[in-house]
Amino acid sequence: MTGIPQLGAAAMAAVLGPAAAADALAAALRCGLDPESCPPRSAIAVPGDGELLLMPAASGPYAGVKIAGVAPGNPARGLPRITGSYLLLDGPTLRPLALLDGAALTALRTPAVSALALRHLAPAGRPLRLVLFGTGPQAYGHLAAALAERELAEVVVVARNREGAERLAAHARTLGPAARTGTPQDVADADLVLCCTTAREPLFDGRLVRPGAVVVAVGSHEPTARETDTALVRRAAVYVESRAAALREAGDLLVPEAEGAIGPGHITGTLADLVAGRLPAGGERGCPQLFKSVGMAWEDLAVAVALYEADR
C-alpha cells in the first residue's frame, strides 16, 4: 500500500461538513442501500476495559473497513477515547484507494447521521432551544450538525465536567446562539435534546420532555448502556438506523424491552423510511420523537466515499 493517499482530520474537515455528509448518507439510502443487510460489527475486549471494533461494508463501486478502538482510559492520558483507521477500497478489484483517520471519520459521520434525522424530525420555521449533553468531540460535532439543519435560539450545555461545559457554551456563543450551562431539568423547555455522552444510565427524567420535542441519543452501542430512560422510550415515537442493529445493540431500547415496558414492534421507523418519505414529515404528532443511533458500517463507507471523491 505504498503511496496510498491519506486523509487526516484537518483535510477531512476542510472538504466536508456535517450537512454535506448527511447529504451523502441520504444519497446512499436513495440509491437503494439497505441498512438492514449491513453486517454487524465485530467486537473484542482488550486489556484495560477497551474494545476493538471491526466494521466492514460494501456498496456500489466501493468497499471499506473501519478498525476502531474504544479506550475508556485514554482521556485521563490526554489521548482520544476513540481511535482507529478507515481503509477505502475499489469495490470490483478491492484495490486500496485511501486511508482515512478513523476517529475523525467517526466524529464526522455520527453527527451527520443525527443531522439527517433532525432534517426530517426537528420542528421547522422557528428558532429552537437545544439542550446538549456532553463535552467531548461528539458534542462539538453535534452542535455543528444542529446548526447546519436548524436555527438555534439557545444552547444549554449539561455535563458533569463544569469547566468543559463552560468551554462548549462559550464556543457555541461564537457560532451565534445564546448559550449557557444548565441541568438535566432544562430538557423540560427544550425543542431538541442531543445526548453525546459515555453514560451508562439515563441522563434525565423522560417525563419532562415535551410532546413534539426531538431527542437524539448517540452515546452507546452496548445493549446494557443507555442515555434515555424507560419513561421517555415508552411515550416516544422511536426511529433508528436499522431495526436489526437497534434490537441487537441499542440499550436505550433493549433495557425497556427487558423490563416489559415496550416490545420489539415499538420502533416507529428507520432513517431510510424518513428519507424515502414513508413517514410523516416532522414525525408523529402529540409525543416526543426519539432517534437512537448505534453507528453502522454503511454510514462510515458513505461518508468516506464522499470525502475521497471531494478530495480528488
From TrEMBL:
Keywords: Signal
Source species of the chain: Streptomyces virginiae
Domain of life: Bacteria
Protein name: Ornithine cyclodeaminase
Transmembrane segments: none
PANTHER family with a match to the protein in the record: KETIMINE REDUCTASE MU-CRYSTALLIN
Keyword Signal attributed: yes
Residues annotated as signal peptide: 1-21
InterPro entries: NAD(P)-bd_dom_sf, ODC_Mu_crystall, ODC_N
Pfam families: OCD_Mu_crystall (PF02423)
